[in-house]
Amino acid sequence: MAQASFSFDESNPAAAALARTVPVQAAHYDELNQTEGMFRPHWQAFFQRLATDELGDLDRRVAALQRQIRDDGITYNVYSEHGADDVQGPARPWSLDLLPFIITAGEWREIERGVTQRAAVLSRTLHDIYGEQRLLGEGLLPPALVFCHPGYLRPLAGARPVGGTYLQIAAFDLARAPDGRWWVVSNRTQAPSGLGYALQNRLIVSRQFPDAFRALSVQRLAASFRRLLDTTTRHAPRPAHGGSPRIVLLTPGPYNETYFEQAYLARYLGVPLVEGSDLTVREDCVFLKTVHGLERVHAILRRLDDDFCDPLELRPDSALGVPGLLQAVRAGQVLVANGLGSGFLESPALQGFLPAICERLLGEPLGLPSLASWWCGEAAAWEAVADKLAEKVIKPTYPLRGGDDRAIDAVIGAELSPSMLQALRARIAADPGDYTVQDYLPLSQARVWQDGLLLPRAAMVRVFAIADGDGRWHAMPGGLTRIAGRAQRVVSMQRGGSSLDTWVQTDGHVDRYSMLPEPLRPEDLAQQRRPVTSRAAENLFWMGRYAERAEHTARLAQAALAMVAGDTAPVPALAAVLGRLAVEHALVPPNTPAPTAAHAASVFERTLLAGLQDTATASVAFNLAAMRRAGSQIKERLSAEHWRLLRQALERFALDEAQQSAARGSVAARAVDALRRLSVDLAALAGAQADRMTRDDGWRLLTIGRQIERLACLAGTLAAFEATGALREDGGFDPVLALFDSVVTYRALYQGRHELPPLLHLLVQDTANPRALACVAELLRAELARLPTPPAQLLAVLAPLESWPSLAELCALDEQRRLPALAAQTEALRLTAYALSDGIGARYFSHAAGYQVLG
Fold first, then answer.
1. According to the model, what pLDDT value does residue 663 have?
2. Looking at residue 762, what DSSP letter applies?
3. Phi, psi of 264 (to 5 degrees)
């Protein structure tokens, strides 16, 4: 496209903007220009608020906008070519363009009437389909569109939702035709996305144009979010002992494409963000699993599609839902918003039947028209469009799961070759009910600021209607406008599209309501407690365990490599113990020969080096990957620096190995250097966790997890040194101190002495040494006692220090020159660590009733 050329007065900012405007394509509505050389009045007013020199400043505003998105961590997960089942799709920064999409007050009145009417029709349709089914009996809706659709949930037939409302929110994708009329392209009723992004867009763009925002009387959004929260609170089951109902927002998890907006929306509404594993159903009631116990949930704002919500009655392979949720809904013990079972309303085939349904249910014609739609399951409809596919858009009637060779995305007939059209026609003829044909609508074109020009992009607006619970609906004055990429006719964020802030003008009062909370009073602060869900606590617990395990295996690998690289043959007992520990910690496979001879040492070294980077077995890299995986599930609880340290530990370890592959020197020497750097990274991570995390129950469980792993690893290490006799050999003295990270402490206390009593005192009994078994046990006891209502049987697992063997007993040799008291004590402590882990999991994570701690 060539840049438009206009003559203008340089002192007129609107004229300056016109000079930078690229015309839209033919047969598309121009959202910016009324006629050639003239802005629409609202855009004229917008640009008049900018000084002429500020037009050149738009680049600075774009940079500020993008910086704000990066600083706020606003992301959108992009799936790979394998689709939504590929959970490893990368997250990219949210795409937002600078200029808003402006809807005038007069246009909005038409849209508002249309979307609220449609929301009412869809809500009443749900009441009918799950009730008397008069629409089916009167032939206004084909039964196949309901009963063949996976979104119709037979387990809920005849059940009435809590509060009597199926839909609390509905979304409609609108497009403007070349003549300026608005058309409804699709409905979204299961878990409509976009509310959080619409709010974030508003906060960012309005700051870039504060004068224009005020001058154009743009209506605010906060009241709509307040209405959603109030409606949910009002219709949720009442708590048995008074107070407000507990509301949670159910998310599919961090791999979902819109996870950021779900987390942002939960924070804005002031409700916990939960995953399916955070909830459990007991006696038909839904509970939130927290470290303080089970807490009743009365309402769920869901962002999870119907069939994933309950693996017991819906999709059995779903790991995202809550087993038993449908029974809780049927029992009237929980409000789910939106109600389950609305998925069939999203079928494009429904659009062709809505006019008659509206007349039947509301007694009035449909306000906003739908795109002309033909469900091919009706013979007459298929016959009418069979030869016109080149002019239409073809869509699947039902959402087909991946792997079904009949599954297609929406396709534009004009983009297909004659042979492809013929193949598609045959495909439809074979299963006509699976396809719906719609008219093609050239989308209106908004403008984006790019390379100093106002460039046209196809646009579609998602508008939201929110119920008040009394049968009335309200349209949120704004929405999420999405735009297509360059030269694209289909609007899709997954295909590289972007978004615009949606400004709705009002010719009345601008609502100044804010969702910002009231100032806190001193008495409020006394009761302030951040809830720690069991899922978050469990991930923190295992993040601590894997961090400690990675640190210990890194030290063990260094010790083993140093031994085999030595100038002299290793002491047999030392070779035996390090070989045994390497097998126990999965650094080498069980059949690897111990490095007791030169040939065996070479095999052992090569095997150990080959496994360091293996993330499939419990090696160093595996523990680092598991630690990062646990952290990724609770990113909202971690600071940016904490998350960077988590990622850095694994990435730098892998990078060091890769970068040094061509470097001179032995492979073992390079591996030792990488392990040393890893130990520094892990020490930095441990310091950040100890010094920079809030001391809540989540941090406490992270600390407990780290100490449990430390107790198990160190007790097992000392037991192995005792069993092989390496503890009584001079060659085993320094290695065991190194594995306990106590070399410097021992030398400072007992310089030049290689004696068993001071060694065992430092490693077993010294409560001032954080690596001593007694110190670890006492720290565990102290942190366990601070957990919410710690059960007595959990505390009783840790034997008091007074019952431990004395130093003389630990050092006493039997007839076989073994240390039986030390062997028994280390084995008891190792089993204690495992018993504590199981007990904590049962008490605070799974909330298993009647569990027993064995140990």
1. 45
2. I
3. -65, -45
Whole-angstrom CA distances from 107 to 48, 181, 233, 569, 713 are 22, 9, 32, 87, 69
Q: Which residue has the higher pLDDT, 107 or 17?
A: 107
Q: What does the mean pLDDT of the chain come to?
A: 87
- What Cα–Cα distance (Å) separates residue 22 from each residue in 11, 41, 445, 450, 501? 21, 18, 11, 11, 21
Which of the residue ranges 96-100, 477-481, 660-664, 809-813 would you say has the lowest mean pLDDT? 660-664
As a whole number of angstroms, the distance between CA 751 and CA 741 comes to 16
Task: For residues 207 and 127, give the distance between their C-alpha atoms in angstroms, rounded to a whole number.
Answer: 43
Task: Write the CA distances from 270 to 144, 262, 289, 465, 517, integer angstroms.
Answer: 41, 12, 18, 21, 9
Q: Encoding tokens for residue 355?
A: 């006019």
3-class DSSP state for residue 552? helix
- The two three-digit tokens of residue 697, written as one number: 């129950």
Q: Which two tokens stand for residue 514?
A: 């804010």
Q: Give the CA distances from residue 179 to residues 29, 79, 393, 843, in Å, rounded to whole numbers and listed in that order.
A: 7, 36, 20, 64
CB 445 within 8 A of CB 28: yes
- Distance (Å, whole) CA 727 – CA 827: 16
The answer to whether residues 382 and 373 touch, using CB atoms and an 8 Å cutoff, is no
Is 43 exposed, middle or buried, given 0-12, 13-18 or 19+ CB atoms closer than 10 A?
buried
What does R_g of the chain's alpha carbons equal in angstroms?
33
Instruction: Summarize pLDDT for 128-183 with one digit per residue, the tens.
Output: 999 999 999 999 999 999 999 999 999 999 999 988 889 999 999 999 999 999 99
Q: Are strands 285-290 and 293-297 parallel, antiparallel or unpaired?
A: antiparallel
Measured distance CA(131)–CA(54) in Å, rounded = 60
Question: 16, 10 in Cβ contact below 8 A?
Answer: yes
- pLDDT of residue 604 exceeding 50, the answer is yes
What lies within 8 Å, CB to CB, of 718 at 6+ separation is 727, 736, 763, 764, 773, 822, 826
In the structure, how many helices (H) and strands (E) does the chain have? 30, 23
Query: Which CA distances in Å does 13 have to 2, 16, 40?
Result: 21, 5, 14
Is the dihedral angle over the CA atoms 328, 333, 336, 341 positive or is it negative?
A: positive
Tens digit of each residue's pLDDT (9 = 90 or more) over 190-241:
999 999 999 999 999 999 999 999 999 999 999 999 999 999 999 999 988 8
pLDDT of residue 754: 85
Q: Which structure tokens are listed for 207?
A: 């700051």
- C-alpha to C-alpha distance for 33 and 119, rounded to whole angstroms: 32
3-state secondary structure at position 769: coil
Could you tell me the sign of the dihedral formed by the alpha carbons of 652, 655, 659, 663, in that order? positive
- At 349 the pLDDT is 95
- Comparing 32-46, 104-118, 604-618, 727-741, which segment has the lowest mean pLDDT? 604-618
- What are the phi and psi torsion angles at 164 (to 5°)? 75, 10
The pLDDT assigned to 655 comes to 54
The DSSP code sequence of 510-536 is PP----PPPPPPHHHHHT-----BHHH
What are 402-450's pLDDT values in tens digits?
A: 444 445 678 888 889 999 999 999 999 999 999 999 999 999 999 999 9
Nearest-angstrom CA–CA distance, 354 and 365: 10
Interstrand relation of 33-35 and 285-290 (parallel, antiparallel or unpaired) = unpaired
Q: Which pLDDT score is estimated for 79?
A: 58
SS3 call for 553: helix
DSSP 447-471: EEEETTEEEEEEEEEEEEEEE-SSS
